[in-house]
């Protein structure tokens, strides 16, 4: 009997045979990512139901010498959640228990497989807000969001997923379970392991539960879509919003060619006329109506034209223009997606130079740019290059580093940018990261090739003899 067969049986004994998938028709959806750019065959897919089962699955894989790819909602955009060839995919979606909200502390225990959308609804029902939001909300999981340290539009006010983590439970590479779920506001005893696991993209441990920090629910909301002549004018508007609107929650931007693509895809006519090079979409949220604050900021920035929406359908119509970028781009081709950050002072230069830099690397490459203005975070989408041709990506990342920016602002490194990590972080920090990885996962079994480039002596297949 082969090692792979042994492992299938061992895992079936832990989770039940129906939750070990080997039929290619059943494993297929776990093997390709959302962009269609990344993927490979899995040895099998295993679907544990709770922490105990995850721990037993990881221990069985360790014994069989099998590499693991943890997977949540499979909405990640850097190829870190799908197999590259022969790994065991551990799907966490069955860990979907949502605990009771502790109203005094504003905390709620959440299973790693709960979707962000389900957590948002649960928090709202208890009078709170999840404090995190982005377009993949109905598919992405809390474990995945924490593993990637996801951001989104509201990070401007509430921080990234990291700021939501008041505690965490995880299974380490040898199957041991670490639990920090007491929710103590102050706890300085030793290294902060939960912090290390946030953003580790499944390479240091498998997140099984999170103690989620909630925000106050603010139902009085107003959004403004503001056409702007330049990125510099948009930055001046951001400064005015910060000065006049303490309720500012998000401040995103997109460009005119992106708007055209979205309108075409959504078969909508433009709500803004005349059109402009840059659009800022800002939203304020408070306990009482924030319209006056927003109006004061627009006036201070000298804005004469803006679309304002203070009702939910109106705000959703405005946000559909920004959030519709991902779908519209995917409909236009298989994009190379780069999620970078640059200092605000360099944003104008960066946006102006990306299209030419990408097209110089691969003629005909089209760059669609949008993102979170308040965080200097730009989603660079390149249409045209073949899936494996990284020349345009490399040109954009060179420009990012020249602007003093980061190769990943919120999507993570995954496999897409692993070979850039040393350049981006420098040799000292990259060496420290390798030391941490080696200490927690000496055999390199957890998500090999994600974040850090794969080592020659690492296993990639569970069946490797
Ligand atoms: C339309 C769309 C919009 C998006 N918008 C944003 C945005 O605005 N901001 C943003 O930050 N991101 C955004 N994303 C990408 C974002 O990274 C994911 O949506 C989310 O963080 C991943 O969650 P997931 O459950 O789908 O994880 P997956 O895709 O399944 O996995 C992502 C990574 O996390 C690891 N992982 C998953 N679950 C666990 C776990 N329980 N323990 C350990 N590791 C785990 C995987 O191995 C992989 O490396 C968007 C994606 C889409 C498709």
Brief overview, please?
The protein is α+β, with helices and mostly antiparallel strands and 465 residues long.
* Number of H- or I-type helical stretches: 16
Q: So, CATH architecture of the largest domain?
A: 2-Layer Sandwich
**Low-confidence spans:** 459-465
Q: Determine the N-to-C terminus distance.
A: 12 Å
Mean pLDDT over the residues: 95
Pfam families: FAD-oxidase_C, FAD_binding_4
Region (Disordered): 441-465
Family: Belongs to the FAD-binding oxidoreductase/transferase type 4 family.
InterPro entries: FAD-bd_oxidored_4_C, FAD-bd_PCMH, FAD-bd_PCMH-like_sf, FAD-bd_PCMH_sub1, FAD-bd_PCMH_sub2, FAD-linked_Oxase-like_C, FAD-oxidored/transferase_4, Oxid_FAD_bind_N
Mind sketching the topology for me?
Layout: H1 3-15, E1 20-21, H2 24-27, E2 44-46, H3 51-64, E3 68-71, E4 88-91, E5 107-111, H4 116-125, E6 128-129, H5 142-148, H6 155-158, H7 161-164, E7 165-171, E8 177-180, H8 193-197, E9 206-213, E10 215-216, E11 220-228, H9 231-244, E12 248-255, H10 256-266, E13 278-286, H11 291-300, E14 307-309, H12 312-332, E15 336-341, H13 344-361, E16 366-372, E17 377-383, H14 391-402, H15 421-425, H16 427-440
Parallel strand pairs: 2-4, 3-4
Antiparallel strand pairs: 1-2, 5-9, 6-10, 7-8, 7-9, 11-13, 11-14, 12-13, 12-16, 15-17, 16-17
Helix pairs in contact: 1-3, 9-11, 10-12, 13-14
Flavin-adenine dinucleotide (FAD) binds next to strand 3, helix 5 and strand 9.
């Amino acid at each position: 009997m082969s090692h792979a067969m042994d492992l299938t049986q061992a895992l079936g004994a832990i989770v039940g045979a129906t939750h070990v998938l080997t039929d290619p028709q059943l494993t297929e959806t776990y093997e390709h990512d959302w962009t269609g750019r990344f993927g490979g065959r899995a040895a099998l897919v295993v679907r544990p139901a709770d922490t105990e089962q995850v721990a037993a699955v990881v221990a069985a894989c360790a014994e069989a010498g099998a590499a693991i790819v943890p997977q949540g909602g499979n909405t990640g955009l850097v190829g870190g959640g799908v197999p590259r060839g022969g790994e065991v995919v551990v799907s966490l979606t069955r860990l979907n228990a949502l605990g009771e909200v502790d109203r005094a502390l504003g905390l709620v225990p959440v299973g790693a497989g709960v979707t962000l959308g389900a957590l948002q609804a649960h928090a709202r029902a208890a009078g709170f807000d999840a404090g995190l939001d982005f377009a993949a909300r109905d598919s992405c999981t809390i474990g995945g969001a924490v593993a990637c340290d996801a951001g989104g539009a509201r990070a401007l006010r509430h921080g990234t997923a990291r700021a939501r983590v008041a505690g965490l439970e995880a299974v380490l590479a040898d199957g041991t379970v670490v639990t920090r779920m007491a929710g103590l506001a102050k706890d300085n005893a030793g290294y902060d392991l939960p912090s290390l696991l946030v953003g580790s993209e499944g390479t240091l441990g498998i997140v099984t539960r999170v103690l989620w920090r909630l925000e106050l629910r603010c139902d009085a909301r107003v959004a403004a879509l503001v056409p702007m002549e330049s990125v510099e004018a948009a930055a001046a508007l951001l400064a005015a919003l910060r000065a006049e609107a303490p309720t500012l929650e998000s401040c995103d931007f997109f460009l005119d060619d992106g708007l055209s693509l979205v309108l075409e895809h959504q078969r909508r006519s433009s709500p803004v006329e005349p059109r402009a090079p840059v659009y800022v979409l800002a939203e304020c949220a408070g306990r009482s109506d924030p319209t006056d604050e927003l109006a004061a900021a627009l006036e201070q920035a000298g804005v004469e034209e803006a679309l304002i929406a203070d009702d939910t359908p109106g705000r959703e119509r405005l946000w559909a223009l920004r959030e519709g970028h991902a779908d519209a781009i995917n409909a236009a081709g298989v994009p190379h997606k780069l999620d970078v950050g640059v200092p605000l002072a360099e944003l104008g230069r960066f946006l102006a130079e990306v299209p030419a830099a990408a097209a110089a690397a691969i003629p005909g490459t089209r760059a669609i740019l949008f993102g979170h203005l308040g965080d200097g975070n730009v989603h660079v989408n390149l249409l045209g290059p073949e899936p494996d041709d990284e020349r345009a990506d490399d040109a954009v990342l060179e420009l990012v580093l020249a602007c003093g920016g980061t190769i990943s602002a919120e999507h993570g490194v995954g496999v897409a940018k692993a070979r850039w990590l040393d350049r981006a972080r420098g040799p000292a920090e990259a060496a420290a990261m390798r030391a941490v990885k080696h200490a927690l996962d000496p055999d390199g079994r957890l998500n090999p090739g994600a974040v850090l480039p794969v080592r020659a002596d690492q296993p990639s297949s569970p069946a490797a003899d």
